Amino acid sequence: MSILTDLRIAAVGDIHLGEDDRGRYRKKLEGIEDRADVLMVAGDLTRHGTMEEGQVVADELRGLPIPVVAVLGNHDYHSDLQYEIAGELRDAGVVVLDDDGTVIQCGDRKLGVVGGKGFGGGFAGKCASEFGEREIKNFVAHTRYIAESWKVALKEIVAEERVVLSHYSPIKETLEGEPPEIYPFLGSYLLAEAVDTAGADLILHGHAHKGSEKGMTPGGIRVRNVALPVLGRAYAVYCLDCEGGL
Amino acid sequence: MEAPQYVAARVQQAMAEDGRTHELGIRVDIRGDQLFLRGQVSGPGQRERLGQVAHEAAPELHLHNEIQVVEAGEPGEDEHLD
Predict the structure, then answer these.
(1) Do A1 and B25 lie within an 8 Å CB cutoff?
(2) Record: contact B82-A246, CB cut-off 8 A
(3) B16: exposed, middle or buried (C-beta count within 10 Å: 0-12, 13-18, 19+)?
(4) Which residues of chain B are within 8 Å of residue A240 when distances are taken between CB atoms?
(5) Which tens digit of pLDDT belongs to each residue from A39-55?
(6) Based on the structure, what is the number of domains in chain A?
(7) Which GO biological process categories is it annotated with (chain A) (predicted)?
(8) In the beta sheet, which residues pair with residue A178?
């Protein structure tokens, strides 16, 4: 299979743009259309989740020559303006996922993208459970609701390839480098379990700045931590071999 | 005298919660009256703001701002997932 017929996914997370970053990230996206068919942004687009920062991000991503799909991250929720920021991004032409899915037409192929912010809770054997105080139950139930939404969206989507876009991590492997004590705040195995059940070709996430780029779910789905500090470059490009699958 | 572990926790919390910074991944170490900040940020402005917030949270300590500024490089080689 030649490179030309592969589906090329550019991905980055945690760009954390502030008002003094206007124009800086856009420069790094020049020529992206020659390298990739779609850009996926894995949350934490802003620093504090203010409208001003949301506008900077929208302007940086506006009118790119390839489709852009994004999810928000915890930083984008900080000022309780997540819906307004998502609206600003949508006005700029960015598809913002919120525990749902979209289909992107890439040449003659349909790429399904499902995802959202995700949430924490920890990893099998060392995780929170829906037991005890209301606050703990709410915490775990939030992740469980998200995982269930992704599973349904993945099952319903009609596409040749399916990618999951998240902010929080579905596995521990891509957190390696972070202190193990904070893993429950960095992701949840419930996300991986849902995706393994419904099936996908690739999972992209951010959030863990000190983590590692590459990992795999227990079901064998490739996971990539695309947080900008992990990549050390403007974005990564992953090519899905459309004939062979994964 | 307050234990250095609590002072370090207070500095870390200030850097995470202060509206000027909201930076979660900075390591704080205290040795005697010396305060060390380590980690990576994307711009020099953020490094300076973190130093300021840390200093305000523990003004009695001598601050060493060892935070590194890391600029995102050019996109590198593609990875083929086959």
Answers:
(1) no
(2) yes
(3) middle
(4) 81
(5) 999 999 999 999 999 99
(6) 1
(7) lipid A biosynthetic process
(8) A176
Helix axes A189-198, A134-156, angle to 10 degrees: 20
Please tell me whether the interface predicted TM-score (ipTM) of this complex is above 0.85: no
* β partners of residue A179: none
- Asked if residue A242 lies in contact with residue A13, where contact means CB atoms within 8 angstroms, the answer is no
Instruction: Give B16-63 pLDDT, tens digit per residue.
Output: 999 899 888 899 999 999 999 999 888 888 999 999 999 999 999 999
User: In this structure, which CATH number among 1.20.1540.10, 3.40.190.10, 3.40.50.720, 3.30.1340.30 belongs to the domain B4-69?
Assistant: 3.30.1340.30
Pairwise CB contact (< 8 Å): B22 & A8: no
Q: Which domain does A153 fall in, by range?
A: 3-240
In chain B, where are the structural domains located? Answer: 4-69
CATH of the domain at A110: 3.60.21.10
